[in-house]
Amino acid sequence: MSEQWRDLVKEKKLRQQAAIPEAWIISPPPSSRLNVLELPEETGLLTPREVEITESHVEDLLPKLASGAWSAVDVTGAFSKRAIIAHQVVNCLTEIFIEQALQRAAVLDEYLSKTGKVVGPLHGLPISLKDQLAMKGFETVMGYVSWIGKYSEVDAALVEILVAQGAVPFVRTNVPQTLMWPETFNNVFGRTLNPHNRSLTPGGSSGGEGALIGMRGSALGVGSDIGGSIRIPSLFNGLYGLRPSYGRVPYRGAANSMEGQDSLPSVLGPLSTSLGGIKIFMKAVIDGKPWKKDPLAVNKPWDESSFALKEHNNGHQLVFGIMWNDGNVVPHPPVLRALEITRNALIEAGHKVVDWIPYKHKEIIINARAIWASGSQEDYVSITSLTGEPLIHTMSLEQDPLAPPSFRLTAAPKTAFQLWQLHKEKRNYRQEYLDHWEATVAQMGTGRCIDAIIAPGAPYAAPPHGKNYSADFTMIWNALDYPAMVLPVVKVDATLDKVRPPHQFLSEEDKTNYESYNPETFTDAPVGIQIVGRTCEEEALIAISEIADAAIKSFLTK
Amino acid sequence: MSEQWRDLVKEKKLRQQAAIPEAWIISPPPSSRLNVLELPEETGLLTPREVEITESHVEDLLPKLASGAWSAVDVTGAFSKRAIIAHQVVNCLTEIFIEQALQRAAVLDEYLSKTGKVVGPLHGLPISLKDQLAMKGFETVMGYVSWIGKYSEVDAALVEILVAQGAVPFVRTNVPQTLMWPETFNNVFGRTLNPHNRSLTPGGSSGGEGALIGMRGSALGVGSDIGGSIRIPSLFNGLYGLRPSYGRVPYRGAANSMEGQDSLPSVLGPLSTSLGGIKIFMKAVIDGKPWKKDPLAVNKPWDESSFALKEHNNGHQLVFGIMWNDGNVVPHPPVLRALEITRNALIEAGHKVVDWIPYKHKEIIINARAIWASGSQEDYVSITSLTGEPLIHTMSLEQDPLAPPSFRLTAAPKTAFQLWQLHKEKRNYRQEYLDHWEATVAQMGTGRCIDAIIAPGAPYAAPPHGKNYSADFTMIWNALDYPAMVLPVVKVDATLDKVRPPHQFLSEEDKTNYESYNPETFTDAPVGIQIVGRTCEEEALIAISEIADAAIKSFLTK
Description:
Oligomer: homodimer
CATH superfamily of the largest domain in chain A: Amidase signature (AS) domain
CATH class of the largest domain in chain A: Alpha Beta
Active site (chains A, B): 130 (charge relay system), 205 (charge relay system), 229 (acyl-ester intermediate)
Largest sheet of chain A: 11 strands, mixed
Family (chains A, B): Belongs to the amidase family.
Structural class of chain A: alpha/beta
Helix content of chain A: 25-40%
Strand order of the largest sheet of chain A: 1-3-2-6-8-7-12-13-11-9-10
Domain Amidase (chains A, B): 74-541
Mean pLDDT of chain A: 96
Protein name (chains A, B): amidase
CATH topology of the largest domain in chain A: Amidase signature (AS) enzymes
Binding site for substrate (chains A, B): 179, 205, 226-229
Number of helices of chain A: 19
Number of strands of chain A: 13
Low-confidence stretches of chain A: none
CATH architecture of the largest domain in chain A: Alpha-Beta Complex
Strand content of chain A: 5-15%
Number of domains of chain A: 2
Shape of chain A: globular
């Protein structure tokens, strides 16, 4: 096979490098330095005000931008600089268009100073975008050598809405080839690292977002999630992240993997340093009436009564189901500790917590994988064959071309009729799971079924590169189309998170997972949880997450 | 092939016959009598009060039932008797369970007399169900010999909701084998006829509903629509019928054809003698929170502000786009007259009517057909092969086994990946059509785009059996997922609907269609139109339809 694809990569990387302002180039720390979170400040490139700006949350930035206390140019400049520094240590960016962003910010500043009004609720907020969010005049490479030079003629619908609401896109972020990996590595831009510990993966497929926002190079970013791709990077980088229901956020015009695979689709959604960022994003997007731009967007306005938890006892004495494992794998000690903290915090705040019994999780996961595999190989090959770039077989540091290919690359294609049979199976599982949830009304004594599920987001904190074997804990909610929020809780702590004595293993996988734990491997890795709500009830899930987040914070600061 | 399947049919028909009360058996009119609408009264079996009841609309029946002026037993009895009479002349029923219905009605009467309250908004209303709406303990044959003896263990979710809201299911109605025909004939129950003119088809696939409600054997029935199957029988029988958006009405537990075909799915919806019936049905179903029973139901409560036309100038000075043909076929004179009446009526009522330019209708139809064909043949054969019943090749009166099979039976199966490519095509068409609609804002001068489309529902009134070749005029809206309402307008009139001079034919199909018209063939056939709204805006579409219906009625009675 010709190696000409390497020339394409070289040329693309040169163009990327040229987009980085020289003044912001740093001398890289030694690769032995694992935790680089403090590095942006240490460089001395950021002014104290730029540090203050970049360490602010979305809900604090927006009022300052709206009042003119901070200009959009200053805020965009600060995040741009910090993003570029971050990129040099964790390799999180793909497209860099700071100059255009600053021009746009200047227009916004002028508008505000002339009219006294903001353009929209996101006025002046820099926003980072996963490398699928096409923008007019820019390439959308999405981790494929074959897509270098693929310039978009229009903005993705979501970009249109965000810009109309006042946001300032300034960078795009790295992904794995095919998007169908929970880590972040491709033949064009290489591997993204976890800023908390560079020997660990930032997760994927929105791993560039996770690493960038983890380093405060952005306060709000857009990822996509087909099996955990927003939530895994959120968990692994100590962030908030929401996987919305199908169609709540418009996908039109974004590049994607396995386009036309509509059975169990990817969704776009936010990652942020704060829950405020998540809420503000969702409300701004939905208020932008995405169904007028994207026929697949759900026609459902933002529902204030759902956000006020009218059907959830107005947020008082909620009942949570807590899932300690998925019936197949028991999570590592730090994850169990995060769950224990959450349970205790919720009880202390006056809520009730009961055990959630997982229902056929393994069967549902197998069905989901089979659906994707029904045409995935043909999809991947149809793209990589354009340039002959190799299909990536593994996320491990050693890219051994002789390694046995992952299940992603060995699936036998199916017929449409066979796919229909998988759809029937999926529908039945979804019906049974809905009944399983609704049936809890009988035990609650509240007249309601449980208000939300607390669950692990992964069976471990961010693992070493190549070791993120399973996305089962996130994928289950995609298959069921339940919105799921990630909240950060703690960090791995060698003292508190000692190896626990072996339990009765639920599966071979469980044993392997148990044996893979020791606290040293996971030094500094953040640990979070998932909160899971009902289909298309993002508003309620956000409000319940606010309650849980406040309870956890109050519990931990005692 | 063994002919044992014929024994199954014989035995099933005997059981059906046994469910008919002997007192209601009539001596059939000669087959030369085409219009049988008045026959129920002529039999003398109906009391004057039963005639009054069965000629009442849903919105008039419900207050009388709620006040106790008419008992549920009386109302159920009256419709049952009329339904049985209808069945004997147009062959519209499948399952008949009048005894159970009367028992249920008696329970409702007792509840009302004891508590002074109704069970729900549909208290005591008999409701007919297409032969897909499974009910616990009953067979769901759905036109397949192979499904004789297939007893359901649970009610379909929609039946559960209707019953909880007070409705009284009393009969199920006939369908074509596979459901994928716009007429109504199968190997078990035979052919359903059009009561306006028995030489014509009542349409399909909800043809049993159409014929039954057309004869006032039911005031409200449930059909399903994947390409026109609610709307075509509504049009052909002079009824109101709504094809709701995907998932607005729950499908769970209903039998179906091509199960797992989720790309362009069938939806359930109402047919009724009045628009009031359609509205009452939709509100009662949505108020039943179908998303708590069916994971595929859209989580969207009934929207009063949409029904009040808040985004459509509160219903004043609406702007309609009128589509005279679909770019491929010009409808017959009676259909054009119905459109002309509608246009003139709307203008007279103070609204604006502009021409609607169809956008790639033929391409969209071809894509839809290819999607269904990707696995349909395997689906049909997997069912018919269970008993060896023949696959039906044609809807014509002569069931010639040597006739060339319809396109439905010759499609080559596709791979899942090929199906994905069709999905991409479909998504692009839907995006372009949405843009086409949104772009009208520029010409309207109202600040809004057009409020609804007026369109033909078929290129002809009810044609003779076997001659309903095309469902293109309805299928287009399924492919786009726009809700579409059928309103009756006039009947074919030999004086007014003369053959028009030939036009410049748009296609070979157009020429064939033109040549197939003469007013005599279509004697007494009703003629209606479609009104088309925006995805998931059923409330607005119903309100706009009320405005148009009132305008048409007022225009015609001048």
